[in-house]
Amino acid sequence: MSDTHDRDGEPDHDGHPHVMRRIRSFVLREGRMTPAQQRAFDEHWARFGIDYSGGAQDYAARFERNAPLVMEIGFGNGEALAWASEHDSARDYLGIEVHGPGVGRLMNALAARDARNVRLYKHDAVEVLENEIAPGTLAEARIWFPDPWHKKRHNKRRIIQPPFVALLASRMAPGGLLHLATDWQPYAEHMLEVMEAAPDWRNTIAPGQYAEKPAWRIETHFERRGLKLGHGVWDLLYRQTPIK
């Protein structure tokens, strides 16, 4: 669902290379928005959207309540996020996606059922995590079917890398859950290797083990298409464990 993009050689704001800036959560393949998707931005962005400002957000004020916050990075067309937020009204959902048509489609779906517990970014997830999400904010983070970057020379562009999962851990509430999923076995193996070596994450199943698909991750159109092509699917579940 989400893509990654490497910005090798591009400096950060103060002109120096920055390790986190080299991992982007997307490659921008915008595509054309339908009239309905464009209307979603015109009519619903003020309600569901958060404009990136580079400063820490008060999400309790955004949602007008205090509730656990679940973040999905790279929600694609929003099918899974829409379902999860509708069936888990006790928690608030934060979606991050750079693909305009997907954001527009999801906003239309949210507006149709008058959703109250979803807010969306159309921005790079790394920058949102670095600058807008304060430490200890997230109860759960989901990254489902990110771009696997199949070619070996592109593997470094994968979003699941040690600096990224360390950043993510710092934004989690104690014991917060990270749920990863992929239908590309080499990427599943890469995810497992990175996560097992991460000092502030603990495998909820057992060391080195994948998880069964949890009930809260619905089978999306994207996944069904992959299964028809003979792809497997691997889920990984980790809890944030502060380093003592």
UniProtKB/TrEMBL annotation:
<comment type="similarity">
    <text>Belongs to the class I-like SAM-binding methyltransferase superfamily. TrmB family.</text>
</comment>
<dbReference type="InterPro" id="IPR055361">
    <property type="entry name" value="tRNA_methyltr_TrmB_bact"/>
</dbReference>
<keyword id="KW-0808">Transferase</keyword>
<feature type="binding site">
    <location>
        <position position="147"/>
    </location>
    <ligand>
        <name>S-adenosyl-L-methionine</name>
    </ligand>
</feature>
<feature type="binding site">
    <location>
        <begin position="220"/>
        <end position="223"/>
    </location>
    <ligand>
        <name>substrate</name>
    </ligand>
</feature>
<keyword id="KW-0489">Methyltransferase</keyword>
<dbReference type="InterPro" id="IPR003358">
    <property type="entry name" value="tRNA_(Gua-N-7)_MeTrfase_Trmb"/>
</dbReference>
<comment type="function">
    <text>Catalyzes the formation of N(7)-methylguanine at position 46 (m7G46) in tRNA.</text>
</comment>
<comment type="pathway">
    <text>tRNA modification; N(7)-methylguanine-tRNA biosynthesis.</text>
</comment>
<feature type="binding site">
    <location>
        <position position="72"/>
    </location>
    <ligand>
        <name>S-adenosyl-L-methionine</name>
    </ligand>
</feature>
<feature type="binding site">
    <location>
        <position position="151"/>
    </location>
    <ligand>
        <name>substrate</name>
    </ligand>
</feature>
<keyword id="KW-0819">tRNA processing</keyword>
<dbReference type="InterPro" id="IPR029063">
    <property type="entry name" value="SAM-dependent_MTases_sf"/>
</dbReference>
<protein>
    <recommendedName>
        <fullName>tRNA (guanine-N(7)-)-methyltransferase</fullName>
        <ecNumber>2.1.1.33</ecNumber>
    </recommendedName>
</protein>
<feature type="binding site">
    <location>
        <position position="97"/>
    </location>
    <ligand>
        <name>S-adenosyl-L-methionine</name>
    </ligand>
</feature>
<dbReference type="Pfam" id="PF02390">
    <property type="entry name" value="Methyltransf_4"/>
</dbReference>
<dbReference type="GO" id="GO:0008176">
    <property type="term" value="F:tRNA (guanine(46)-N7)-methyltransferase activity"/>
</dbReference>
<feature type="binding site">
    <location>
        <position position="183"/>
    </location>
    <ligand>
        <name>substrate</name>
    </ligand>
</feature>
<feature type="binding site">
    <location>
        <position position="124"/>
    </location>
    <ligand>
        <name>S-adenosyl-L-methionine</name>
    </ligand>
</feature>
<feature type="region of interest" description="Interaction with RNA">
    <location>
        <begin position="153"/>
        <end position="158"/>
    </location>
</feature>
<keyword id="KW-0949">S-adenosyl-L-methionine</keyword>
